[in-house]
Amino acid sequence: MAQSPGNRSERLASWLESRAPLSGVVEFLRHKEVPWHKGTFFYLFGGVALLLFCVQVMTGILLMFYYVPAPEGAYESVLLISAKVPFGWLIRSIHSWSANLMILALFIHMFSVYFMRAYRPPRELVWVTGFVLLVLSMTFGFSGYLLPWTKLSYFATKIGTDVTKVIPVVGEGMRNFLLGASEISGPTLTRFFALHVAILPPIFTIFLGLHLLLIQLLGMSQPLGQQKARGIPFIPNFVLREGIVWVVVLGLLAVLSVYLPWEVGEKADPLASAPAGIRPEWFFTFMSQSLKYIPAKVMGMEGEALGVYAIGAGGLIFFLVPFWDRWSREGRRHWLVTAYGVAVIVFLATMTSLAYFKPY
Amino acid sequence: MASESRFSLTRRSVLDYFLGGGILALLGTMVYPVFRFLLPSRFAVAHVDTVRVASTSEIKPNTAKLFRFGGSIGILVRTPGGEYRAFSATCTHLSCTVQYRADLEHIWCACHNGHFDLFGRNIAGPPPTPLAAYDVAVRGEEIFVSARKV
Amino acid sequence: MRGNSWRRMVFSALGAAAVFLLAAPESRAAAPQPDSCVQCHRALPGKLGAPAKMLEADIHAQKGFSCVNCHGGDPASFDVKVSMSKEKGYTGVPKPAEIPALCDKCHGDLAFMRRFSPSIAVDQHKAYQTSVHGQRLAKGDVKVATCASCHNAHGILPAAHANSTVYAPKVAGTCSKCHADKAYMKDYKIPTNQLENYLQSVHADLLIKKRELSAPTCNDCHGNHGAFPPAVSSVSGMCGQCHVNNRDLFVKSPHKPAFERMKLPECVVCHSNHKVVRVSEAMIGDKSPAVCVSCHAAGSPQLRVAAGMRKQIEDLKSLIHRATEELEKAERLGMEVSEAKFSMKEARTMLIKVRTQVHSFALKEVEKEAQIGNKVAQGALQTALGALKEFEARRRWVILPIVLTVVLALLLFLKLREMERKSPGGV
């Protein structure tokens, strides 16, 4: 960025350029534009999710300094972090809040892309990688939930992993592989820990890299039906807008973490009976709640299995939208696509709010 | 104030200084907690399963030592015969802390004169049940006490 | 565990061991097989058949004894005229007055009883003779309890057996068979409400409801075989079997000589005898329901001491309560107060000691103990309040980054506006 005249800086620039030939990248960024229209605001949510992911990585690394991944020490170490380590309560609280906000940001990001039909060719793979990132994020949430080894997380995980049982033939084996034992116990904790801090992060990073790279190569999607909308420069106009949102999100994170600190709860006791009000993390409640409404037997099939398959099928249709939405390729909005998206949102919102306001 | 090139800030305005300062301050508020978080401080790591209670030279036969065991108190007894035994020091009557009586050669609770033998069994006075026993392990010079595995 | 329950245990547990090693001597020898008494009587209905059927579970039968050992006769003969003949020593149903001596034939003979249990007590008959029951029996009162009244005549079980009539939780019921029977007790002019009172006591709650076998029942204060009402001046000795510290403090207190002069039954004066209810601070003080006011006049210096002791307890109790509450509040907010919570154990111990110390009836002693507790609880309370303050401070400090983010967002917005003065997007 140094533009001041002078031999010295020019020499430095050329020295750098010959060793790190990035002038192309700089040039690219200089000319990168973001379409300017009514929905530009929604483009910011991908960036928010990115910011929150960075917060997760940083706070996650910090927590690893004190966390002990063993049934005898996990709960105690989380207590230690939130009670004794200076600012430990804050860092743990931020990690929890940021995780939840990240999922929320991802959902907003995904639905805005869906309704803008931004997944249409040639951006199918951007959609696919993005969807994978959402699934990975939810897996992050699921595995991280167990780590404090509290009563609530123990039983929520028990219920969550029991869902795999509905898969014919391999379901039981899959569950045991996931748990490392036939019941949630020490091996489960270490497995979930490995998943959470060693397996998921590199996979997530690869997909995130792909996702970002593809967007750079393909450019941001134009609104449907417009060949070439007006654009604003990515730097600095869009970046400044993103900056404002980031700062606001950071402020929100601070407020939430301090005024609504995440409770530690009671230590898990495998012998105790499940406490009332067991619920998974909010982004899984739609699943557990809808399974409650399905009768035990539906036309000779296990109700739960049926529910899981139905939800899975619904998710798959959603995931495959770039491949069956032929209309958007021709620049048309079809009511069916919109209706399906709205149906998914209504379903998720109804089930999630039912889980909170009318759990029984 | 707009510069000729969209992507160069040649002339620094007051606003830019404020912006830079603000960003630095925000970074500062992030770095400080992280720094404090990582700085080793004087807190004990929560080990509730096993605690080091004493060294072997510290406890003579026919004496005992009270120690903290998680959220409760334990008593490490060295019997007149030289054996180490450890129990919960919470009296089973009304939860007072018991003590060792070298003259009686057993454990005694001062609150209501409860007596426990060297196996923690209630032998006299109001305590209704024995003291919970812990496991004792001597490693070198160190005596460790751990919760008895059920 | 106290002497009596020990004895109960030893009596039954050790007794089981020795019998198979030695044969019983002549008249007390084990019954022959087959046993005609059992074989015939088992087939008989009602009263005549019941004893034979009850024999199986009887501790004596288990040790090899049978009908013949108490009733005489010849169990080898199946001819009623022979087996139940005087010539063969048949004595029939013993009269109540004969029972103690009959049982004592074996139970008073250490050389014999040793075979079953080396340290078994053999003084039951002697003890019985000193008891009110025994003394009245000697004077010809056959309504009194003898061995069989409490232990049953047949189907006698060891005291530790839960079905035994002398199993600790059942003793009160056994004694009350007579002592709660108003008609039966009419001639003796003693109360019959002991069971009713006892059942309301903390002792009965422990022993009968909670099956806490070390809690006392009738015989722990009155004796069993030597049953006798304790002398007025020996009450503290009874209670002191378990409540040692209370006794020790009481006997050194001014109440001891005063009660002795007035012939008042020590502990019972305040705590009652059979109806020993769970104590509370309300018992002490200068106003009803405090028991002190039943003797001491209003405004007397003694009542001032009582009120002072009450205040010490109440103060420490409320301080402990407050400290515990604040500590829990701090803990819920994620503050580290485990050290202070830990120290509260000592404060609670001191509260119990203070309540015991009341039996010295010396305000100074009570204050001394209370002060230690106060200091500990006060320390914990301060820790809790400090932690709560720090929690508030956290909330205040976070204002800084929040304000910063707001300001920064504003600055960024200004910057953006400045840049895009001409048109949104700056193109």
Order of helices and strands of chain B: HEEEEEEEEEE
Let me know the average pLDDT of chain B: 82
* Spatial order of strands in the largest sheet of chain B: 1-10-9-4-3-2
Specify the CATH architecture of the domain at 30-268 in chain A. Up-down Bundle
Ranges of chain B where pLDDT stays below 50 over 5 or more residues in a row are 1-10
Mean pLDDT of chain A: 88
Would you kindly provide a brief summary of this structure?
The complex is a heterotrimer of chains A (360), B (150) and C (427). Chain B is α+β, with helices and mostly antiparallel strands and 150 residues long.
Describe what you observe in this structure.
The complex is a heterotrimer of chains A (360), B (150) and C (427). Chain A has 360 residues and is mostly helical. Helices cover 68% and strands 3% of the residues of chain A. Chain A has a domain at 30-268: Cytochrome Bc1 Complex, Chain C, CATH 1.20.810. Chain A contains 15 helices and 4 strands. In chain A, strand 3 and strand 4 form a beta hairpin. The radius of gyration of chain A is 23 Å and the shape is globular. Chain B is α+β, with helices and mostly antiparallel strands. Chain B folds into 2 domains: 1-43; 50-146, Rieske [2Fe-2S] iron-sulphur domain (Rieske Iron-sulfur Protein, 3-layer Sandwich). Helices cover 17% and strands 33% of the residues of chain B. Chain B has 1 helix and 10 strands. In chain B, the strands form 2 sheets. A 6-stranded antiparallel sheet of chain B has the order 1-10-9-4-3-2, with no helix packed on it. Chain C is mainly alpha-helical and 427 residues long. Chain C has 3 domains: 1-166, no CATH class; 176-215, no CATH class; 243-397, Butyryl-CoA Dehydrogenase, subunit A, domain 3. The interface between B and C is large, with 34 and 37 residues.
List keywords for this structure.
heterotrimer; B: 150 residues; alpha+beta; Rieske Iron-sulfur Protein; 2 domains; four-stranded antiparallel β-sheet; 10 strands; 17% helix; elongated; C: 427 residues; Butyryl-CoA Dehydrogenase, subunit A, domain 3; 25 helices
